[in-house]
Amino acid sequence: MKDLSTSHLLGIKDLSLNDINLIFKTADSFKEVINRPIKKVPTLRDVTIANLFFENSTRTKLSFELAEKRLSADIINFSAASSSLNKGETLVDTANNILSMKVDMLVMRHPHSGAAKFLAEKTNTIIINAGDGTHEHPTQALLDAFSIREKLGDVSGKKVVLIGDIKHSRVALSNIFALQKIGAKVMVCGPTTLIPKYIKKLDVKVVHNIEEALKWCDVANMLRIQLERQDIQYFPSLREYVSQFQLNKEILEKVNKPITILHPGPINRGVEITSEIADSEHSIILNQVENGVAVRMAIIYLLAGSVNRT
Ligand code: CP
């Protein structure tokens, strides 16, 4: 078996195209496994994984848990709200205490950008970044690209637009890195105030008109407005945002071509996308969630190759 070129998954930036292809090939096998009547393999029976979630999550947390269980790993779950962090314990002390219980791998979501890299440098274990602040969400980008590949046969050469709050989105940054490495063309679309200035350095097309974006793309990945990360108001009102950037039946009829629609969740129905479109035949939103388990199984399996089991 080939190995990944990295011993952690901190961001897509660190992965090579070979790494991504290896993850996809491995995920293909695990997707077949999780569609069997017995959805489990004994592969990681001797591996223990801790899931450290310092920020809310539904999809990512449950998807990692299920991926670990399908691989027969032992798992423990840590939730910041009920932990000794409230008594002043540091992140590194918390992690090292968990690791001293013979834990082999940490999956971590944290509100601060760079937290996963920091922990990888300060501890002696394998770290998987489950989303760090506004920085990266690598497993989301991999499952998004895997889902596009499944729907359209290939990602290379496809035109993908990310629409919405690019500035506060770790999904956007990881998607840009992943899609470009695979050979897709990437555009971002949103209000000027929600497109970060550094985007120009990433060889990404920028537009502020959803009709123009939809006319250009094969795939639209809709991002929600991250009000919880916004310290100031970035547009006059939600109604104004909806009138200019919502994906709905009217704008899709105007564009009049098939567009594959993704959304990482959680969806704000009636804001960035209408229910009618989120649940339509062109939407692969629930396929993304299904594929998330297979992709995360692949990542955990490949990284666990370096666990010392003697
Ligand atoms: N897509 C995503 O990260 O969703 P959660 O915040 O529910 O994990």
Summarize the structure in words.
The chain is an alpha/beta fold and 310 residues long. The chain has two domains: 12-137 and 290-306, Aspartate/ornithine carbamoyltransferase (Rossmann fold); 138-288, Aspartate/ornithine carbamoyltransferase (Rossmann fold). It has eleven helices and nine strands. Strand 5, helix 6 and strand 6 (185-189) form a beta-alpha-beta unit. The chain starts with 16 loop residues before the first helix and ends in a 7-residue tail after the last helix. The structure holds phosphoric acid mono(formamide)ester (CP).
Order of helices and strands: HEHEHEHEHEHEEHEHHEHH
Largest sheet: 5 strands, parallel
Structural class: alpha/beta
CATH homologous superfamily designation of the largest domain? Aspartate/ornithine carbamoyltransferase
Radius of gyration: 19 Å
Number of helices: 11
User: What amount of the residues lies in strands?
Assistant: 5-15%
CATH topology of the largest domain: Rossmann fold
Shape: globular
Reported CATH architecture of the largest domain: 3-Layer(aba) Sandwich
Specify the helix fraction band: 25-40%
Q: Specify the CATH class of the largest domain.
A: Alpha Beta
Count of strand segments: 9
- What is the CA-CA span between the terminal residues? 20 Å
Strands side by side in the biggest sheet: 7-6-5-8-9
Bound molecules: phosphoric acid mono(formamide)ester
Uncertain stretches of 5 or more adjacent residues:
none
Number of spatially distinct domains = 2
Provide keyphrases for this structure.
310 residues; alpha/beta; 5-stranded parallel β-sheet; 4-stranded parallel β-sheet; 15% strand; binds phosphoric acid mono(formamide)ester
